[in-house]
């Protein structure tokens, strides 16, 4: 199991659950390097000035945002730090929603949440409450200076923190040329539909993800192993260890008391506060500029 990359706490009402965050994703990709076929030397990429052709040293590099053709806004490290989200070690659940209502297209990257020793009882309580309700806890979490939207839900005995894509990161399918389900010209004939559903029924099986694997990677690795056994060598690429942050100092005392107070506080706030008005949409930018920004975010 890889080392945790983040340590903090889940804020569940007034309950504080110290946890560590570990990636649930393992991508055994085969890494290639560019090599000169003449002498088998590694290829080095240079930072070259597009106007002068000269290599630019690291201390002269700055970040620039092209807001129009050839027009840049330069951003220093101080500028970027000024707009970074506040560094926090708390996953504060703000809403609970039905897990089934979250579009799978929004799922991005999964993490495991592991409780610290003093937080195991509260961890088990939140886990079983989520399991029974079928809900997911929605929160924002900061990982390595970037803020993410996330959903927390249960898989077996572990709480999963799934980083979510924001809806604007999903491209619309409106411009795709699709056979419309409301167009009678594309309506399947009764016989065709009957045969199609019969075929689906006959091919239906229990989902067993362990039976599926990357056949291309297996074949490629087999080919590479043959070349190694034939006397050729490869570089051993070592992956850096994940950062291990400081431990959380939260404590959990009377769970029932905290939960009761959290419930009363939420109920009182809902009764006193009128519904929040939605923020007015920002004025759209110029067509050309908006199009360029859309291409960068794609």
From TrEMBL:
NCBIfam families on file: Ku_bact
Residue ranges of domain Ku in the record: 53-181
Region (Disordered): 232-251, 264-298
Sequence ranges of Basic residues compositional bias: 275-298
Transmembrane residue ranges: none
Domain of life: Bacteria
Coiled coil segments of this chain: none
Name by which UniProt lists this protein: Non-homologous end joining protein Ku
A GO term, aspect molecular function: double-stranded DNA binding
């Amino acid at each position: 199991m890889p080392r945790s990359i983040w340590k903090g706490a889940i804020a569940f009402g007034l309950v504080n659950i110290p946890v560590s965050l570990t990636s649930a994703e393992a991508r055994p990709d085969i890494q290639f390097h560019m090599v000169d076929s003449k002498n088998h030397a590694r290829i080095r990429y240079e930072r070259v000035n597009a106007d002068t052709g000269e290599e630019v040293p690291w201390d002269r590099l700055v970040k620039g945002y092209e807001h129009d053709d050839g027009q840049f806004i330069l951003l220093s490290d101080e500028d970027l730090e000024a707009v970074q989200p506040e560094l926090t070690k708390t996953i504060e659940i703000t809403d609970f929603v039905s897990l089934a209502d979250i579009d799978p297209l929004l799922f991005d990257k999964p993490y495991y949440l592991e409780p610290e020793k003093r937080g195991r009882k509260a961890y088990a309580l939140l886990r079983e409450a989520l399991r029974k309700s079928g809900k997911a806890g929605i929160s924002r979490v900061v990982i390595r200076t970037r803020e993410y939207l996330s959903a927390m839900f249960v898989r077996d005995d572990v709480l999963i923190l799934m980083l979510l894509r924001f809806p604007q990161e999903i491209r619309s399918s409106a411009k795709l040329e699709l056979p419309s389900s409301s167009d009678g010209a594309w309506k399947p004939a009764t016989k065709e539909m009957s045969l199609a559903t019969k075929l689906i029924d006959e091919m239906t099986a229990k989902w067993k993800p362990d039976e599926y694997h990357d056949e291309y990677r297996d074949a490629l690795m087999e080919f590479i192993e043959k070349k190694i056994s034939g006397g050729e060598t490869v570089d051993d690429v070592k992956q850096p260890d994940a950062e291990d942050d400081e431990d959380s100092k939260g404590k959990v005392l009377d769970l029932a008391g905290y939960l009761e107070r959290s419930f009363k506080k939420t109920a009182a706030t809902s009764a006193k506060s009128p519904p929040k008005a939605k923020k007015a949409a920002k004025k759209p930018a110029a067509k050309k500029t908006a199009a360029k920004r859309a291409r960068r975010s794609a």
